[in-house]
Amino acid sequence: MSRSSDVVSCCTRKRKRSGGGGGERVFRFKSFGQKGYPIEFDGSFRENVEALVEVGNAESVLCSNINGVGTMMRSWSFQLEVNRHPPSHLFLFVLEELIEKLVDRHCKYCQYTGWGHHLVCNKKYHFVLPSKNTMSAFLDCIDHHHLMTSTNKINNNYNSCKGKLINVMELQDHIMHGVFHSNGFGHLLCLNGLEAVAGSNLSGRQIMNFWDHLCNALRARKVSLNDISTKRGMELRLMHGIAYKAPWFGSWGYKFSRGSYGVIQPMYEKAIDTLRAMPLCILVHYLGSSNHDIPIIFSRYQMLSDHSLTTLGDMFQFMLELKTRMAEENLLDSYTGPGMFVEQSCRWSPKRIEMATRAIVEALKRADFRWVSRQEVRDAARIYIGDTGLLDFVLKSLGNHMVGNYLVRRCLNPVTKVLEYCLEDVSNIVPTQDPKVKTTIHQYRMSKSQLMKDMLYLYKHILKDYPSSLVKQQSNVSNNNTNKVNVGILSVVPTAVRIILDAKYFAKEYHEDQHQARVEIGSEDKLSVYCTIMLRNNNINIEGTTTTLPPLLPPFECVRLRRSATFNELMVEVEKIFRDLYWGMKNLILDSVANLEANGKDLVFGQVEVGGKVIFQGSNKGGIGFMNHHQNEEMMYYEGGSNWNKVVVCGCGAREDDGERMVSCDICEVWQHTKCVGIPHHQPTPQIFLCKRCENEIVTLPAFP
Predict the structure, then answer these.
(1) pTM
(2) pLDDT (0 to 100) of residue 396
(3) Name one GO molecular function term (predicted).
């Protein structure tokens, strides 16, 4: 039985013990979240989530140890069929987290992504694909709740949970974990493919496709992620940035959102363009004299490519694309001379292939290195090789490969649409071969492991370690003009690498304003309109003075009404929606329309088009925007919380908390990155810290008599 089958059977047994029924519905993993499956997904985000969990299996309330307090949550599960033959299943859990039960109601992911100005929502929805290891944590929570219920301890403040259960939402080795706020903004917290999770048979691409379909189907507004993914020690955001001008997640539309250490989008894009455009010939010229492996690796993949590889971006893109095409143990038999790919079951002997190759090369030599059509080359070689099938096979395999000191080029003529061949003498580029080695073609084998080894070597010696040490070494040796140019070219590499690695937060806009001007046909037509609110008394009291905050405009929400509905009826519905959505709006009262001259008894669709926008105005006594609130209390209703009061002025240019480790000056209370003030990451922050400005002011103070 497969590992996933073990999980399914284990989950089924525990569910039966906790009172759940068997025979639950099984959903197709590949189709889940696509149009009409398992539901129509034709509402707003909050409506789609509520409709989705209705078709899930209602689990026992999970008990999770959050901030040292046992917290009860509603949850639902969906059994997903990954493969039918052989059978393979996994579970998707949806957990509803109520903000009012939490000690810390603010979302650190919103703060670090730059969404600290968002309002705190009443609910969060966690979507989790647990691995075999984390599945046991879920089942332990279910079993523990059943034990509490059966012993009548359910109302004992959940003290029995404390210390016995872990917070399953903080685990990092789930197959996938994403969280949505009830207003549709979300975060992808972790994604682990088959290489990261033992027993998983899903690749990272399959999991990401599932997540992307889910976000689209639910009509999420915007989703962020923190890209710290690595593979064999290589940061993928750096590799894919150079290769594709975007991170690995860029294949699904995720773009730069926010950088750390003062990195902004123009800096990020400039760094990527600089490394992508770095000519290979420049790297060979400056690095090849002391590192002979780099030119050899470059030449190896230039031979294998059907198109010219001239820049570092070209090289990494070709290597990554070759890796995706190459099976794990699918060895490619090729030749060190021509670099031709030849199957072991080939019906021609290596000797005959070598003879045909030489005949073709000699024919191209007689063409004086000009471009010649495939038919001309074939006809010229037939004088020496009568087997046309052999010639066709070699011509097909020979394009853009080495034969001795010559590179056979092949391309499609854009005018005649005919394949053409040309010979290029590369004897001054390819390292001189040992004269003892015969010119006979020798076979070698390339595997995916060899490709990964070459990629890791280039990553380490070009991007991570080698250039900085070479710059320092050459700066000490000589100060002539040539070396100054050399140092200048190589010095941009570590700087650009650092900038790219400091850009970790990416985001994708799915459905920003939830616009969906849809008409529902039922017992009575219902039309959609989009509404938000603006609070009239949006003031706070700061040290005895009243300060006005910017107008509060949360995202528009879709409201469906009868064609004959009035503004008063719409106002009541909008009040209910926003009270349910946001923690700080429990006392919201709307009284007027801000963007239209309308009375309460006027018909909505007499003044607003279907799918139009309406802004209501009102007050929120005792909540957000209430007059005479203190600043700290007011800020608690925003995801940024008290961090909005944190003053960040760092030498790197950062002016907000970006999630990196910081230290505060004990005099001026200004925050800076520990890295920027010279505190190593492995060292704790000092008990007393003074910034340079305060330190200089103390030094220049006059001495007391």
Answers:
(1) 0.77
(2) 81
(3) zinc ion binding
